[in-house]
Structures are given as C-alpha cells and as structure tokens.
Amino acid sequence: MNKAEFIAQVAKRSGTTKKDAEKMVEAVFGTLSDLLVQGDKVNLPGFGAFETRTRSARTCRNIHTGEPIAVAEARVPVFKPAKTLKERVDQSCVWTNS
To answer: 21 and 11 in contact (C-beta within 8 Å)?
Structure first.
C-alpha cells in the first residue's frame, strides 16, 4: 500500500474527503517525526511505541572487496508494537499444512 492508497483508506474510514484525510495524515506523521527528532517517546496504547535509540559506532566489511568500513554512531527510529497489535496480526495469519 502506498501513501495515496493509505490516505484513501483513512478518508473512507473517517467519512471525510481525501483532501482532509491527507491533511490529517500529514499532521500525524509530521508531529510524530518532530517528536522523534526532539528525542521524545510516543506511546500509542493498543498500537505501539515509537522512540529513538543510539546505534553505536562499528566496523563493517565491504561485501565486494572485503575492505573494512567504519560506520559512525547514529540515532535511529524504532517501533515496538503493542501486545494487542501483535495478537491481532498473529490471529490474522492462517497456517496450512502442505
């Protein structure tokens, strides 16, 4: 699903126009991004939590040449799904024995 399809789903579910839904989606993701940049944790009960973590500096290898490459320390966004979301996704899986 791409962004336009997501906006269409939000519009349909909320009973608003696609234009209004696009404004809502942009506002939500813009706010979420701003809070993560500030280092805040965003907890959405029943859905999950967004936060940033620091990934330490390390040395990797170029897979083509085998040459070592220094990778700098970086702050990265992380999402941890809530238990209810994990259960809901897991229940939607249908396993069949082949």
So the answer is: yes
This prediction has a pTM of 0.77
The DSSP output letter for 13 is H
Q: What is the 3-state secondary structure (H, E, C) of 22-90?
A: HHHHHHHHHHHHHHHHCCCCEEECCCEEEEEEEECCEEEECCCCCCEEEECCEEEEEEEECHHHHHHHH
Cβ count near 21 (within 10 Å): 20
Adjacent-strand bridge partners of 51: 78
Q: What are the pLDDT digits (tens) for 45-85? A: 999 999 999 999 999 999 999 999 999 999 999 999 999 99
- Alpha-carbon distance of 34 to 29, in angstroms, equals 8
Contacts made by residues 11-17, CB under 8 angstroms, sequence distance 24+: none
